[in-house]
Amino acid sequence: MSEEEILFQQRIDAELKVEPKDWMPEKYRQNLIRQISQHAHSEVIGMQPEGNWITRAPTLHRKSILLAKIQDEGGHGLYLYSAAETLGISREELVQALHSGAAKYASIFNYPALTWADMGAIGWLVDGAAIVNQISLQRTSYGPYARSMVRICKEESFHQRQGYHIMMVLMQGSQEQQAMAQDALDRFWWPSLMMFGPHDAESANSTQSMKWKIKRKSNDELRQKFIDQSVKQAEVIGLKIPDPALKWNKAREHYDFGKIDWDEFARVIKGDGPCNRQRLQHHIRTHNEGAWVRDAVAAYEAKHKKQPTRAA
Amino acid sequence: MKLYEVFIRSRRGLDHKHTGSLLADSPEQALEYARDIYTRRSEGVSIWVVSSADIIASQETDCESFYDPHDDKPYRHAAHYQLPDEVNSM
User: Does residue B75 belong to the interface with chain A, where contact is any CB pair within 8 Å?
Assistant: First the structure.
C-alpha cells in the first residue's frame, strides 16, 4: 500500500468521512460510482411499475399519494446522480452506462405491477427493504452519499406506510380484495429478499466495500433484519408470508427462512426477468424524446455566453 | 471590494453551513479572510466562499406561490397514515 492509501484507510478506520476533493484510491472512486449510480438508476427505473397505476388508482386520494411518491423517487434519483457526479463522472456517462447495460438497477423493478395491491406490496416491501439498506448507508464513508441517504430516509418513511396502508385496507375488505393483497405479497416477497443481494460468501464486491466502509452491514444481516420486522407486520393485518420454512429461532433470536431461488435472481440480473427489456426500452425512448429539452438548454447557454447581458 | 458569503463545514460528513459574509478583492482573498474571521477557534475543516452576487435567492414575497401548495398535501408526511400500534414504528 502507498503512503496515501495507508492514510486513507486510517481516516476510514477512524470513522472520518471522505469528501469530494480528498485523495482517494481509484478503486474506491470506481466502486462508489458503481454503487451510487446503481442506486440512482433504481430510483428512476422504479418509477415505471408505479407509474403504470396512476391512471387506475381507485380514488383521487390514492392517485395524489401515488403521484407524490413517484415524484419523490425522481427526486431521490437526482440527489444520487448529483452525489455520483462529485466523483468526476458526468450525467451523460451515467445514463449511457444504464442504456448499454453496463450499469445495473435493482432487479425487483423487472417484475410487473399487475394489480392495485401491487402498489401496496411495493410500498410496504420494496420501499421497506430499501429503507433497511439505506438506514445503514446513512453511515457510509463517502460524505455526499451519506448525506443524500439521510435526506432520502426522511422522505421514504411515508412511502412504506402508504404501501402498508393499502394492504391493510384491502385486508379489511371483501374476500376478493383480501386474496388480491395476499397474491401481491406472494409475488413480491421473494424478489424483495433478493434485493439485498447474494449471500455474504458469494458477494463479489462486499469484502472491499466493508473495509472501506462504503457498506456498513452485510447483505445477510440486512436481509435478516428485514425478514424479522416484516413477519409481525404481515401478521397484524392477517397476511401470510409465503415461506413454509419461516420459523422463529429462539437460539438465534431471528426467524429462519427458506431457500432463496438464486437462479431466478441471476436470470433477472442478466436481463431475463419479466420486464427487463420493457423497462430499459421505456427509459431509452423517453430519454431520446427529451433530447430537444437538453438541446434547448445548451442553445440558451451558448446564446448567453456570447452576449452576457444579464445584470449581475 | 466585493461581498462574499462564507460557508463552513464544522466536521467531515456534515454539510457546509452559512456562517456570515465579508468583503474581499478576490475569491482567494475571501478564502483567507474567511479563515481569519470565522475560524479562529477551529470552527471548521472546510470553507466555501461564494460571491454574494452569484447567489440566486427566492424572495420572501414569493413565499405564497413557492410553498403554499405544500400545505394541502398532508399525505406527503408519514404521520398521515394511521397504522395499528404494533407496527406503528414503521
Answer: yes
Residue B40 belongs to some domain of the structure? yes
Grid cell at residue B57 = 435567492
pLDDT in tens, B13-38: 999 999 999 999 999 999 999 999 99
pTM: 0.91
Total number of domains constituting chain B:
1
Domain extent for B45: 1-54
B61 in a structural domain? no
- The answer to whether position B30 is within a domain reads yes
Nearest CA in chain B to A67: B76
d(CA A245, CA A233): 18
Radius of gyration of chain A (CA): 21
Task: Let me know: does B24 contact B58? Beta carbons within 8 Å.
Answer: no
Question: Which of A18, A119, A138, A161 would you mutate first to test chain B, the one with the most B CBs within 10 A?
Answer: A161
* A-chain residue closest to B56, CA distance: A312
Q: A61: which chain B residues are within 8 Å (Cβ-Cβ)?
A: 75
